[in-house]
Amino acid sequence: MPGIIDWNELWKATHTRGFIHHDEDLAAHWDRRAKEFNKRVMKHREKAERQVAQLGLQPHETVLDVGAGTGRLAIPMAKIARSVTALDQSGGMLNCLKENMQSEGISNIQCIQKSWQDVGLDEIPAHDVVISSNSLGVYDLLDALVKMDRLAKRAVYIFTFTDHHRDDGFREFLMNEKRPQNAFQPAGYLMIYNLLADIGIYADIKIQDWESREHYSSIDDAVASWKTMHEIPSENEPKLREFLSKKLIEDDQGLCIHRSTKQAMISWQKSPQTTA
Ligand SMILES: C[S@@+](CC[C@H](N)C(=O)[O-])C[C@H]1O[C@@H](n2cnc3c(N)ncnc32)[C@H](O)[C@@H]1O
């Protein structure tokens, strides 16, 4: 029941760009950057394992990973749980996931290529745990959250960056390149949290530091990677090169960019928890 602020309408108003035609746009967007994304994130195995450790998965449990991408979390989850259903709208991302499964010798992940908004409640069975990690590319947040709740037997976990200033100036640089600066945009994680409360789900929220080091063999390698990941037009390449050359530092593994940000873990348990 919305209060003074209708969080779902606010979400729609601030997330329209890119999501409203998501069936084509967002899937194609991830198809284009799948290989580069996979190369970047699958290197950080330890970080994924730390994230998965917070879910308290048991060997008999099943997991539904909404927006599983290339399996950064699905792979380590599949090593603990009975099975993982990896849902993603992007065929390119799921192809990388299947390659990763093969190279890790994993067979208990079932891939479903579909948008979360197109999934009917009777299409996928309930799983013990439902998770989404930086993957809520949906226009109707209420519908997406209710579906996650209904399909979870034990718990739901949502990981999301705390705001759009998530990377120490990189994002602002990119936004200046791509679109006019949006002077005010409320943080998405607060909309998720408040919308949940409006529908009677009192979630826990934990803010965590998110550090990453991205290594490149050369400045050309970094420019090529950033161009693909952030879809930066060729005419902006000189500016991108100048920007990256100021940010890249040498460490023992080559040229490196250190990025830090904060991530929110929003979670709720399905069975009532009682305190003594
Ligand atoms: C940033 S990646 C994150 C992948 C993975 N969860 C992780 O943590 O590494 C976002 C992924 O979510 C998927 N995604 C976003 N919105 C989605 C939706 N509405 N339905 C299905 N997949 C979605 C994208 O296709 C993409 O593969």
CATH topology descriptor: Rossmann fold
- The proportion of residues in beta strands is 15-25%
Structural class: alpha/beta
CATH architecture: 3-Layer(aba) Sandwich
| CATH class category label | Alpha Beta
* Form type: globular
Low-confidence stretches at least 5 residues in length (pLDDT < 50)? none
Helix content: 40-55%
Count of helical regions: 10
Find the count of extended strands (DSSP E, 2+ residues): 8
Tell me the CATH superfamily.
Vaccinia Virus protein VP39
How far apart are the first and last residues' alpha carbons, in Å?
31 Å
Our Rg estimate from Cα atoms comes to 19 Å
Chain-averaged pLDDT = 87
Largest sheet: 8 strands, mixed
What sequence of helices (H) and strands (E) makes up the elements?
HHHEHEHEEHEHHEHHEE
Q: Which ions, cofactors or small ligands are bound in this entry?
A: S-adenosylmethionine
Tell me the count of domains.
1
